[in-house]
Amino acid sequence: MPASVSNSPVFNLALAAALGVTMVSLAVRLKIPSIALLLLTGILVGPSVLGILQPDALGSGLQFVVGMAVAVILFEGGLTLDLEGARRSPIVIRRMLTVGVLITWLGTALAAWWLLELSFDLALLCGSLVIVTGPTVVSPLLRRIGVRERLKHILYWEAVLIDAIGVFIAVLCLEWLVPDAGRAWSPLLRFGARVALGAGVGIFTGITMALLLRHHVIPDEQVNIFVLGVALFAYAACEAVLPESGILAVIIAGLIVGMTKPKDLDNLKRFKLELTELGIGMLFILLSARLQVSRFFDYGWGLLATIGVLLLVLRPLAIATATVGHRFSVQEKLFLSWIAPRGIIAAFMASLFALELSHDPEMAAQAPILETFTFAVIGITVVIQGFSASWVARVLGLRVGSRQTWLIVGDVAVAGALAKGVRAAGGSAVALAPIDKGEEPASPAPHIVHHDPLDRSLLDDPRFADIGHVLSATPNLDFDQLVCQRWSEVVGKDGCTYICSHEELEEAKHRHDPHALCWDGIDPGDLLHGLDAGSLAVTTFEIGPDEDPGRFGPHVTPLLWVDAEGQVSIWREGQLSEITAPGQTVAAYQRIPDLDVLVGDALVVPDEQATFDEVVENLLAAAAQHQPNLGVEALKQSILERERSMPTALGSGVAIPHAYCPSAEHSRCYVANVPAGIDANTPDSEPIHLVFLVLSPVGKAEDHLRSLASIARLVHDRSYVSFLERQGSSEELLSRIHERA
Hints:
The chain folds into three domains: 60-179 and 187-395, Up-down Bundle (Na+/H+ antiporter like fold); 405-590, 3-Layer(aba) Sandwich (Rossmann fold), CATH 3.40.50.720; 595-738, 3-Layer(aba) Sandwich (Mannitol-specific EII, Chain A). It contains 28 helices and 16 strands. A six-stranded parallel sheet has the order 3-2-1-4-5-6, with helices on both faces. Strands 11, 12, 13, 14, 15 and 16 form a six-stranded mixed sheet that branches. The radius of gyration is 35 Å and the shape is elongated. The N and C termini lie far apart (79 Å). The model has no long low-confidence stretch (mean pLDDT 84).
């Protein structure tokens, strides 16, 4: 390659960017850690091997590019940092971020001082660079392997929260190592000045950006570039006054903007995430290309021994200390001890500090050890731990099998009800309610995630690590299709389904859309409207191979099926006849509000010769047990006299005798099932099997009519009436009626 090309800063920067994004994309496709490919590619194309890429051609511009990239990455980290998740973090994570950090930092420093024969000050700096683990490595790793929920939670939040801690300890160590020429300030005083400057500028910048975004001062089309420009300016301004103070400024600014949740927050996160992925790919190629392979051999066994102490002694010690007093098995502690891959922040900070030390005549000779040691730790942890994690989890017995959790996307009422039903039936489900960008949920619920389902950052949340199936059930068909397209990249085409109407299903079949299904008699819009209005509810029904089909009349629509093993599937037409083992269905049903309060007792009258008068007498006797001073004889005469002149038989085997009762406080109903039937003068000449006796307080005509209407709604379907007639005990009869409440 001509020297004019290989020494061109523009060519080298563009080549690094192209290789970086290519390797990141390839890693996603191969489902392997991207850092492994980036590190290998950078070394391969760098001066030590092929010599295609010449990072030194950028000169002093390399430090500038690295600094700006670190600023964008840390601003994005602050922007996406979930403080609520941090507050939910258990004491184990807090110990890992305090005692565990000290063990890692000081223990690594002692090992480097002894085994690598570094000065103790430089050893402290080396130790500080490998404190961080990094969510960019941990999150994909957790998605790839299935382990217990609390292990994922601990590893994820450690990676998310430890970045800022590690960065500031590293800055403090750098202050201690490189005093400013001509200044007599102590390192702690200089560090305090940097913290004060960075915090002040960060708070001012964050509040200013948040206010401008909240009041829509910045046009929507310019929000992303405005925030990027202001964040970079805040970083550069701090760096111009006190080097290394800009890091804190961008973290705090991003945190404040994220906490205020402006309208364009989701777009902003996506934009920053794309920039971060571009920056990570490009810079990791550039920085790893600077590595001289010979240096890894120069440090020999001392380097490997130091890394061995870090991974095999200090990490287990930190985990053992953090889990004292908590019920963690030996296997769980071993797994947590094994998984601690280092990532992007460690690499960038090491390179940034090495570049800075290279300008100091006294420290220039020792600067390469920072990159050599840190990149060696990154390479070993990412490759060995990343590729062995699944095997280690399986050997330790911590695998939870294939991903079975269902992600249910829909409005709060729909997604929340379906996910709750799945969990009640023994399955695993997460409810995700779409929310407008930056908008606060109207009624936040702890069991419902409010977020944009199309946002890829969801995959970093441990609650979504085990998603194996996605069900989108919103009234917006186009949105449902987008959700399935996006998530099919994660769970595969067979794992994504959206619910539509029968007409839309026919159209989807013509388009060969594999994601479309429909429920029998109800679509997501109907379900949402019914749940919001209170006319529908979602519950679970235990059913078995011999289930009576009459239980599921037009008032009940099965939606999902959960078998005895917790496996979830979407209910299919005709599935009831195919059930061979007990399970539960999550179903929507037409509610009859307060029916469980209205119907107070039930009887089964086995007498084959029972008359209507005898059944009424039995019902009044049952009512008298619940309502003292009922005046049974007077009520009986009143009811029977009315029956002779105005029969209350509705047909289909149902009669609803009713009366006002002076001693009643509330309307109550008592039901009798007469399997043999009562011959009576009915509209359809069928015998009466179900008798509903309604008693209401005097002067409460409205309540009385409402109670009669509720019973009429209950028995309007002949198949359901037949189902109630087949209930063999009073308990079964009352339970089936109360299911409709």
